[in-house]
Amino acid sequence: MQTVDQIKGQLCRRQGSRVRLRAYRSRRRALEHDGVLERCFESVFTVLIEQGGRRERVSYTYQDVYTRRLELSWVED
């Protein structure tokens, strides 16, 4: 299993890349979105999501990835 610092490094190296997110909000509910990994900060990162012509910026913590509340996969163009 990766450490939080390793996850942060991996994400920060791929800024500007397309990602697919699967965020688990409860046992039965997961949200899926495609977006662009926009910026990395000390304890969070932001993803720009476009849905139906609307743009939305969402943020997640590296801990979300570590605890598997958020799954990320890279989308190749």
Low-confidence stretches: none
**How large is the share of residues in beta strands?**
over 45%
Number of helices: 2
Counted up, domains total 1
Indicate the CATH class.
Answer: Mainly Beta
Structural class, from helix and strand content?
alpha+beta
Strand order of the largest sheet: 4-3-2-1-5
H/E series: HEEEEHE
CATH architecture descriptor: Roll
Residue share in helices? 10-25%
Q: Rg to the nearest angstrom?
A: 12 Å
Terminal CA distance reads 28 Å
Description of the molecule:
The model has no long low-confidence stretch (mean pLDDT 93). The chain is an alpha+beta fold and 77 residues long. It has 2 helices and 5 strands, in the order H-E-E-E-E-H-E. It has helices at 4-13, 62-66; strands at 18-24, 30-40, 44-51, 54-61, 70-74. The protein has a single domain (4-74), classed as SH3 type barrels, CATH 2.30.30.
Give a summary of the structure in a few sentences.
With 77 residues, the protein is α+β, with helices and mostly antiparallel strands. It has helices at 4-13, 62-66; strands spanning 18-24, 30-40, 44-51, 54-61, 70-74.
Layout of strands and helices, then pairs:
Elements: H1 4-13, E1 18-24, E2 30-40, E3 44-51, E4 54-61, H2 62-66, E5 70-74
Antiparallel strand pairs: 1-2, 1-5, 2-3, 3-4
Give the key terms.
single chain; 2 helices; alpha+beta; SH3 type barrels
